Structures are given as structure tokens and as C-alpha cells.
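Technical note accompanying the year-one report. For the benefit of new consortium partners, we illustrate the data format agreed upon in the data management plan: each record pairs a sequence with a C-alpha cell string. No post-processing was applied to the example shown here.
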Amino acid sequence: MTMQQDKSSKEIKFQPGQTADAAALVDYQSGSIVSREILKGANGRVVFFAFDEGEALSEHTSPFNALVQVLEGEVDITLSGKPHRVKGGELILLPARQPHALKATRRFKMILTMIRP
């Protein structure tokens, strides 16, 4: 990996033109959901997540459009009451202000990109 990590702050610092192994930017922890914010701006942010099997986020809404890109594993996502199984290599758009929930059917990692509509 050519990306630098400041060990004292756990902050990932991107330099223009660097590459990184996306799945390696966040590690699993037993019985937990781990998140790492990678980019943040006035109109949105990018967050990497690692969910242990069985971990979940209860139904909620967001003022952002949210693009979920599953890197590995598998998650059940409910969007406005409709279930979706999303696997590694797939993505799904969660529109702003639409109720959604997530549950890890297996350990999974994802990139969440949130953009203000």
C-alpha cells in the first residue's frame, strides 16, 4: 500500500496520485462495527466500514444520498421496507430521506459515499 497512516491519530492521509488496497483500510473486530472516515467535505463524505457477522444498523434516514459499495462479504439492506441482499463487488444507492437498515449476513466491508442532494 502506498498510502500513509498517521499512527497517533489513526487518520488516513491521501496524497494525490496514491493508490491503496480499499479492503485493507479498515479491519474487522469481533462483535463490532468498525468505521473509518476517509474524506469529508461540505457536500459529503466517504466512510469505510467493517461489520462482523450479525452486526446491524437499525432503521434510520439520512439527509444524504448514500452509495453503498460492498467490497467483500454480504449484507442484507432494507430500503423503504424492501429487502436487498448485496454481495462483494455490488453496490446499491440509498436515496436521501428514505428509511434503510443494514444487517451483516456474513462479515462484510463497504465503502459508504454520502453526497448532499
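Partners are asked to follow this layout when depositing records. The two ends are 33 Å apart (CA to CA).
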